[in-house]
Design a protein that fits this description.
- By secondary structure, this protein is α+β, with helices and mostly antiparallel strands.
- Helix content is about 20%, strand content about 25%.
- The protein contains 3 helices and 4 strands.
- The protein has a 4-stranded antiparallel sheet.
- It is elongated.
- It starts with 7 loop residues before the first helix and ends in a 27-residue tail after the last strand.
Length: about 100
């Protein structure tokens, strides 16, 4: 039996992004329980090709870390613009998680 899709925001207790140096951003997804974590780990929506699509990158540019002991997934990727350079609209990388908020898992 297939489970109905649920928004990532419903399954995760924390969704945040931040700089991982001036050239990279990292997105942290912490899940409410083991069931939500396992659902996220298996979801195609959180695999590198899907994440790359949402950020205009190649799948090879996405690094994904599964952290089962803390029920979290970490995604790291290059920033489009170096932090603080002209044209950088998010100096701290704190709003870079926004494209994932509507993902359905």
């Amino acid at each position: 039996m297939t489970m109905p899709a649920l928004p990532l925001a419903h399954l995760a207790s924390v969704i945040r992004s931040k700089n991982a140096g001036p050239l990279c951003v990292t997105i942290d997804l912490f899940f409410r329980d083991t069931q939500a974590y396992e659902r996220a780990v298996q979801s195609e929506a959180l695999k590198a090709p899907s994440i790359a699509f949402h950020y205009g990158l190649h799948a090879s540019q996405i690094r994904r870390f599964e952290l089962p002991r803390i029920m979290a997934i970490k995604l790291s990727m290059p920033r489009a613009v170096c932090a603080g350079d002209p044209g950088d609209g998010d100096l701290y990388g704190a709003q870079q998680h926004a494209p994932l908020l509507r993902l359905m898992l």
